[in-house]
Amino acid sequence: MQKFLVRMSKNLVIVESPAKAKTIQKYLGKDFEVKSSFGHIRDLPKKGMGIDLTTFSPDYEVSADKKKLVTELKAAVKKADMVWLASDEDREGEAIAWHLADELKLKPENRKRIVFHEITKNAILKAIDNPRDIDQNLVNAQQARRVLDRIVGFEMSPVLWKKVKPGLSAGRVQSVAVRLIVEREKEIREFKPKASFKLDGIFLNKTEQEIAAKLKKDFEKEEEAEKFLEQAKTTEFKVLNVETKPGTRSASAPFTTSTLQQEASSRLGYNVTNTMRLAQRLYEEGYITYMRTDSINLSQEAIEGAKKQITSEYGAEYSSPRNYTTKSASAQEAHEAIRPTDFGVKSIGDAQLNKLYQLIYRRTLASQMANAKIEKTVIEIGNASLPHHFEAQGEVIIFDGFLKAYGIVKTEDEDEESNDKLLPKVSVGEILNYKTITATEKFTRPSARYTEAGLVRKLEELGIGRPSTYAPTIQTIQNREYVDKREVEPHTREVIKMSLAKDKIKKVVLEEKFGGDKNKFLPTDIGEVVNDFLTDNFREILDYGFTARVEESFDEIASGDQKWKEMMTNFYSKFHPRIEDVEENADRATGDRLLGVDPKTGKNVHARIGRFGAMIQIGETDDEEKPIFASLMTGQNIATITFEEALELFKLPFDLSEVDGQSVSVGVGRFGPYVKWGETYISIPKGEDPLSVDQKRAEEIINEKKIADAPIATYKGEPVTKGTGRFGPFIKYKAIFVNVPKKYDFENLSQSDINELIDAKLEKEANRYIQQWEKEKISIENGRWGPFIKFGKAMFKIPKKADDTKYEADELKELSLDEVKKWITDQDPKAFAEKKKPAAKKAATTKKATTTAKKPAAKKPAAKK
């Protein structure tokens, strides 16, 4: 009876995402209204710290973009008898529920907290039948993380502005992630490769079947390898031993957040952010269980569902139900691993979602399947007269077990060599003939740079961060430009290869490329300098053990074993004095490297960080004649650039002969090397050295640009061109750029396509401007959150009227330019101040080198810091 009353009363369910709301509404029916909070409705203020540092009480506020939504939710609450807070079951979700309860002033008797880790009808109805109240311990764990990270960022960032470069920021987990990447890069730079000779043999049995084998010993010296080949030349090779061992391979546990991110990277090539975005959709649409988890546990219901599916699809012999125990002390066993909600759903319609769903589906099935049975064979080949013997290894799968569903993928750390080859039948004592024996010089390799998946694995291994933090951490360190994934061009070296065939030894010297990389993390110059400064001055904050211990403290708060404000007091009592000490006493950090002395001027040449980033400086800041600067090119950094490479940069920019009556020069700027033709900047193709661009090559680049910019059509008598920019393909009409969506065939745009695209853009632009003064570069425009003023690239608010009401669009159309200018100067008194003209250059060499630093007209003042 009670359940019936609950169902029939006025019920408001609040979730955090509209997609989730849509799915849940489908299951609950008309007696329930489901609304979305669109994530957090409250947070710490964007300006100021927003924390009372005596009590560590946060001053939460409803963000500007959520005020309208909160008003709507309050109205919905008034109509409801019961409010069900159904945000996610993790700490972040608990905090969202708590903020909603507090801001919407929900009384305990009129609110219920429900959680579920899958969005299915059974799970939702079961959650409604088993409500609870808000778990304040989980809320406090989230508050502790939010407050501690705000304090660290808020107090450390100004130190970086003062000691390194304005505009930088620091964060607790992000800084540790950058440290991992910087330390790996330094390890790679300092790595000294060692050469050795590895021997491979191909042997033939009496039926001419090939057996590939490796010598069980590597030789350090070329002479030793050559001596062994000489011995092998006249040796009769025999099968010395054949050993066959049975073995098994076991399936991996079902996915946690971390292992899903790693596997989606290695199997599907997805980055961490993309994986989480797709997993979120799969969860919200009801296909998988909650995707932020560090548990590998499966419910009994899931184990039974998998067993039924495996038995019907593969047969009873493939089924082997089992549960996995999570090793992490912080994992909650009540939670589940990421799994399908219904094993009967084998695929879904959306192609991109289906790829990730298939991965999760097959991994979960495999975890409940029998081990694969293999037979491993090892054949030893050699002769008593030889000091070392060859070994051939092979594997045969006797029963495929879980491999039937999931297969095997090698990790980036595993050897490329595979043992799963089939070996021919041989017997002990059988004579084999060698076909070839090859000794190849191989060099040891340093540890690999981190991929996104590798970085997640390392952070998890160190106990740093939690499932919800990996993706935002990795995104943040890239957004802050502390790390990037630029391509590393390989180096070339000579290797010796000796081959024995038909009783003759042939020696060749080959070239091999090494050290190249793609899609791996590298620190930027500023990332290295910031990391070195922080590790020198805030060693404890960047200590891996300390960061892991902080995570453990959050876990203790979540379980009620520690009070969050006591933890904050203890942390801050040590942290703040360190901030004050560093601000007062630490030296400025520029990453300065003295490279040598310029032969022309006799002045020092430095590689360092300046106000606008990495640069080369000739001369000292306190010299009577000011220093001159040059920007580094893509792929160069201050930690590794050589003296010779640095001096080459001062040859840029250089002038060439005019083309079509317009001046031509070659230089390097913010976006890399370019040819400047008149006022047009044309990028030099990737990997091409700008110093190698002569008149002929410059003209080729200009002609390619002319062809690319040639009109493809006309619109109202005006030419239309096309190109590809930072945001994808576009067409250009007059000064208007129009993005071309994927539904159009960019290579074969028809006139009707072009008309359609430009018409839509012009209509949008017409609605964009309320008023526009083109000459002054001032406009009043419609924005996402209402009208605003734009002056150049800067944006300004429209103040309220004297009666504290907002201006209507019709009123804004009547405003004069002078009134708008006054609003701009009220917000920025220097907005219309005259720009100072740059001082005249003293000498030709200075002029040339200073313009090199393009774009820094302002690179000189940087040196004065």
Summary, kept brief:
This protein has 865 residues and is α+β, with helices and mostly antiparallel strands.
Helix content: 25-40%
- Number of H- or I-type helical stretches: 25
Pick out the low-confidence regions.
1-9, 329-333, 411-417, 838-865
Can you give the mean pLDDT?
87
CATH level-3 fold name of the largest domain: Topoisomerase I, domain 2
Side by side, the strands of the main sheet go 9-10-13-12-11-14
CA-CA gap between termini: 76 Å
Shape: globular
Cα gyration radius (Å): 33 Å
CATH homologous superfamily caption of the largest domain: Topoisomerase I, domain 2
Write the CATH architecture name of the largest domain.
Orthogonal Bundle
Largest sheet: 6 strands, antiparallel, barrel
The count of domains is 8
Q: Strand tally, please?
A: 34
Structural class: alpha+beta
CATH class of the largest domain, named: Mainly Alpha
Beta-strand content bin: 15-25%
Labels describing this entry:
4-stranded parallel β-sheet; 865 residues; single chain; 25 helices; 34 strands; 8 domains; 36% helix; Topoisomerase I, domain 3; Topoisomerase I, domain 2; Rossmann fold; disordered C terminus; 6-stranded antiparallel barrel; globular; alpha+beta
Describe this structure in words.
- By secondary structure, the protein is an alpha+beta fold.
- The chain folds into eight domains: 11-134, 3-Layer(aba) Sandwich (Rossmann fold), CATH 3.40.50.140; 160-188 and 447-485 and 520-589, Topoisomerase I, domain 2; 195-242 and 376-445 and 494-512, Topoisomerase I, domain 3, CATH 2.70.20; 257-370, Topoisomerase I, domain 4 (Orthogonal Bundle), CATH 1.10.290; 593-651, no CATH class; 654-709, no CATH class; 713-767, no CATH class; 769-827, no CATH class.
- The strands form nine sheets. Strands 9-10-13-12-11-14 form a six-stranded antiparallel β-barrel. A four-stranded parallel β-sheet has the order 2-1-7-8, with helices on both faces. It has a four-stranded antiparallel β-sheet with strand order 19-20-21-22.
- β9 (195-204) and β10 form a beta hairpin.
- α4 (91-103) packs across α6 (136-163), α6 (136-163) runs antiparallel to α17 (544-558) and α9 (257-268) packs antiparallel against α14.
- Residues 831-865 are annotated as: Disordered.
- The active site is at 290 (o-(5'-phospho-dna)-tyrosine intermediate).
- The record marks 40, 145-146, 149, 161, 292, 480 as: Interaction with DNA.
- Keywords: Coiled coil, DNA-binding, Isomerase, Magnesium, Metal-binding, Topoisomerase.
- It comes from Chryseobacterium rhizoplanae.
